Amino acid sequence: MDVNSDVYSAALIKLVYECLDQDPVKRPTSDEILDQPLVACCRQELEERVALLNSAMKKPKLSTVTDTPVAVVTTRSREVYFWGGGKFTPQKMDTFKGGSIAQHVCAGESHFAVVTVEKELYTWAVNEDQMYMFGSDYYGCIGVERELGTEILDPVLLEFFEERPVRQVSCGDNHVVVLTHSGDIYSWGCGEYGRLGLECEDDFSSPMQVEIPKGAIISSVSCASDGTFFLTETGKVLACGNNEFNKLGLNQGISGLKNHPGEGSRGIPYITTLTLVKQLARFKIRVIGPGKNHTAAIDERGRLITFGCNKYGQLGVKDFKKHQGVQLLVGPFGGKTVTKVSCGDGFTIAATEDNHIFAWGNAGNGRLGMPADKGFGSEVCPAMPRPIFGSLHHELENAEFIPIPDDISMPHQLSSVSESVTLPYEDLKALTAAAGAVGTKKDLSVKPG
């Protein structure tokens, strides 16, 4: 192949020939190409041009920061560790300025946020009410108007929050929402489906204040992958964003309406403003745990409520069927109060007051902490909560759940049903123990829960 050397430099011609080498092993990798002097000198400009071209199409960007999800945690000594994205063991982060101490961290698909004890906000981490952030800035998630390029590898202090002390931060796949100590809400990043609560689907690369409904006082914010929940001090839940599978709980019941015989619901695909989740209105919610396509919540009585997609049995109701409304799980935890819950991509993890941890749903890739050699391979999806830490208090096959009807006008019936289902579990526990004793005497095995 002849190349006009009057038009192209010798270095570029050499690079093209290397890329066309018949032996794939001898071809340069993408990183090696980007490190070439003729490319490296204008790499940032090229990345910005590519980001600008892609932003109009809103196609996902393949970030070089991480190819797989990354987990971020803090220890009791306020150290920050992360793993994933090719890191198989926890890596300690030592990049906060002046010895700042991490207080709260969260992670999105390819960006992180931390609040420090000094209340700084870094778009990567949050330290005492200050906030630091790092990761992909493709959708403007870092909150610095894309001034530092599309990928930020070191924590960046968000000066915007230096005079607005941060109380909490939450990251979705491509957006960030912050609650300040003064009760204000700010959001930025990808605006698709209205997940930012700004009455539009525009992307924003700097914090934008969210209008809160009159009379509502927000106590916490929780980002789903492409939606956001806002929990009020009175236990009500507001939401905005993508409501596919009814994962925000925004579908409206139509049972009993004219021309709509039987029970059903009217689907709301997405919503761009903070909207009351009526399906949870009868509960006083204390914890909300959004996942990719489903959500779990805990009410003031420590009961677990699930709704959304049930493809992998992640709702915990013994089946893999589609359910229109919310589901109240009152039996699987042996009458114990549920204190924490977290949802992933097709699975759910919950913890009870006595530090027992339960998991159910998609067990692939070790999601549930259940070893494949014990019957929990990637093809197995437990559709009921199973303990992964702690002892089993009862036979899980006999656990119950209550499907909550869409009509929200029967709170008194709800409490009576709940009690009638929960009470028999003391008897069930005694029967299980008796069966175990009989099995031991006769040298028979009792079916495990």
UniProtKB/TrEMBL annotation:
Keywords recorded for this protein, A-Z: ATP-binding, Cytoplasm, Kinase, Magnesium, Metal-binding, Nucleotide-binding, Phosphoprotein, Repeat, Serine/threonine-protein kinase, Transferase
Domain of life of the source:
Eukaryota
Q: Where does the protein principally reside?
A: cytoplasm
Q: Domain RCC1-like spans what residues? A: 127-371
- GO cellular-component term (any): centrosome
Provide the protein's localization. Cytoplasm
The protein's required cofactors = Mg(2+)
Q: What does the record give as EC number?
A: 2.7.11.1
**One protein family per Pfam:** WD40_RLD
> Which regions are annotated as RCC repeats?
129-182, 183-234, 235-301, 302-354
Show the GO MF annotations: ATP binding; metal ion binding; protein kinase binding; protein serine/threonine kinase activity
Family label:
Belongs to the protein kinase superfamily. NEK Ser/Thr protein kinase family. NIMA subfamily.
Q: What protein am I looking at?
A: non-specific serine/threonine protein kinase
Q: Which organism is it from?
A: Liparis tanakae (Tanaka's snailfish)
